[in-house]
Write a structure and sequence with these properties.
InterPro entries: Rhodanese-like_dom (IPR001763), Rhodanese-like_dom_sf (IPR036873), Rhodanese_C (IPR022111), TrhO (IPR020936), TRHO_N (IPR040503), TSTD2_N (IPR057944). This is Thiosulfate sulfurtransferase/rhodanese-like domain-containing protein 2. Residues 301-396 form the Rhodanese domain. It is a single chain. By secondary structure, the protein is of the alpha/beta class. Among the domains are: 78-109, no CATH class; 151-259; 280-434. Helix content is 33%, strand content 16%. It is built from 17 helices and 18 strands.
Length: 480
């Protein structure tokens, strides 16, 4: 945990941890204190509430800063949030206070929890006779600038995706490891991504970090270099842990960096199901051989092996391994419930699990193992992403769904989904036009004026993005 002091008292620690001198907090009157959260706190922690909320608010605003060409020469700041551009602090503060109260609430709670852990950890460290070797390698200041790369030798345009000589790139990675100060990591990641003109989404928790960012190839290369040299990650991350694909900063609407309880939302506390007890990792080559063996069996239903897709149904709908079991779940937090309801299905089975990049399988396999019904649990190291790099024409058919503006990556010409109206092969997603839903539906690129897309089901029912629309063959339905 980066720290400039080793405080023993609560008030000193409060000042050390919660004060960010480089953030302007003059508009904090816009924030209304949450009595419900305060009511849950003990007397000592209540005193720290206002500090925690100020820090949560300031960090959230800081993540909305966008770099500009002029920012290399002057201190002018801009903020982008909810597709709006803000040119002064008052307006962005007012927007955050009125539109993102829930996020500030959860961030405040997270900071308070982390503060409690830090207090306990600090007391333990101060009473220890031996030095903690991990603590020795951590940053010694809250100033994140010491851990940013030197970009003075580069033209600013080289770092901006689409404006330099190189095409852009998207990185996907995660690293499970214990982090004592997720809030500092959050501030550092925000500053790092802004400096490199990266957009994307990064989740940080006490259990690690999970990110997908896009930018120029120079920017992503520098980002990887920084991550691999950072003391907390250099022993747990390697270059092969970063999955790359064509793209850039345009693949994400903005940069979002935040602290959460889990780096991938399974809905179960990491204290109950830890990443430290996962299934056996198989390389893409080893996994390929296992799938080949499974598919070669005459009666797969009687096999002692299950090929399990851990993703959501709208992901597996457009691409999946042959012969897989693809649960009909809308989000990963439903996976534990699916397992609980189907324990007999997994009893005495060898389970081969896979997901997009491997992260969902880490705790997903740990949860399945904890049930004690499986013979063995394996997981694909690096996920489908790494498998397709080695076996683009292997046993995975169709597209790979991604959570950005590209929606899907294509490694082969297979189309495994179809239009629910006409039955034609189709796998291109578009957003549903029903305001209440932001899930995906497929359609050909529309020529203006745009055609309105709706689910066949009433929008009051469960919106299923696996229902596809095929414009060219469903012209009657589209024009009605």
């Amino acid at each position: 945990m980066p720290s400039s002091t080793s405080p023993d008292q609560g008030d000193d620690l409060e000042t050390c941890i919660l004060r960010f001198s480089d953030l302007d907090l003059k508009d904090m009157s816009l924030i209304n204190p949450s009595s419900s959260l305060k009511a849950e706190l003990d007397g000592s922690t209540k005193k720290k509430y206002s500090f925690a909320k100020k820090k949560a608010f300031a960090l959230f605003v800081k993540t909305k800063e966008v770099p500009t060409k002029r920012s290399f020469e002057c201190k002018e700041k801009l903020w982008k949030c909810c597709q709006q551009l803000f040119t002064d602090q008052t307006s962005i503060h007012r927007h955050v206070a009125t539109q993102h109260a829930d996020e500030i609430y959860h961030q405040t709670a997270s900071i308070l929890k982390q503060l409690a852990v830090t207090l306990s950890t600090s007391k333990s460290l101060s009473s220890a006779d031996e030095k903690n070797p991990l603590k020795e390698c951590l940053p010694h200041s809250h100033d994140v600038s010491a851990w940013l790369p030197d970009i003075s030798c580069f033209n600013p345009d080289e770092l901006i995706s689409g404006q330099g000589s190189e095409e852009g790139e998207v990185l996907l990675y995660y690293c499970y490891r214990d982090l004592e100060d997720p809030q500092w990591i959050c501030a550092w990641q925000t500053a790092l991504c802004q400096q490199l003109h990266l957009t994307g989404k990064i989740r940080i928790a006490a259990e690690g970090i999970n990110g997908t960012v896009g930018g120029s190839k120079l920017a992503t290369r520098l980002y990887v270099e920084v991550m691999l040299s950072f003391p907390l990650f250099k022993d747990d991350l390697c270059k092969d842990d970063f999955k790359t694909s064509k793209g850039g900063a345009h693949c994400f609407p903005e940069l979002r960096v935040g602290v959460f309880e889990e780096i991938v939302p399974m809905g179960i506390s990491p204290k109950k199901i830890s990443y430290k007890k996962p299934g056996i990792h198989l390389s893409p080559g080893e996994f390929h051989k296992e799938v080949e063996k499974f598919l070669s069996q005459a009666n797969q239903e009687q096999s002692d092996t299950i090929l399990l897709d851990c993703r959501n149904f709208y992901e597996s709908k457009i691409g999946r391994f042959q012969g897989c079991l693809a649960p009909d779940i809308r989000k990963f937090s439903y996976f534990p419930s699916y397992v609980d309801k189907n324990l007999e299905l997994f009893r005495e089975k060898r389970v081969l699990m896979y997901c997009t990049g491997g992260i969902r399988c880490e705790r997903g396999s740990a949860y399945l193992k904890a049930k004690g019904v499986c013979k063995e649990v394996f997981q694909l190291k690096g996920g489908i992403h790494k498998y397709l790099e080695e076996f683009p024409d292997g046993f995975y058919k169709g597209k790979l769904f991604v959570f950005d503006e590209r929606y899907a990556l294509s490694y082969n010409s297979d189309v495994v989904s179809e239009c629910s109206y006409c039955g034609a092969r189709w796998d291109q997603y578009k957003l549903c036009s029903t305001p209440q839903w932001t899930l995906f539906h497929s359609a050909e690129a529309l020529a203006p004026p745009p055609v309105t897309l709706y689910c066949p089901l009433p929008y009051s029912a469960v919106c299923r993005p696996s229902l596809f629309h095929h414009q060219s063959l469903c012209s009657v339905l589209w024009s009605s």
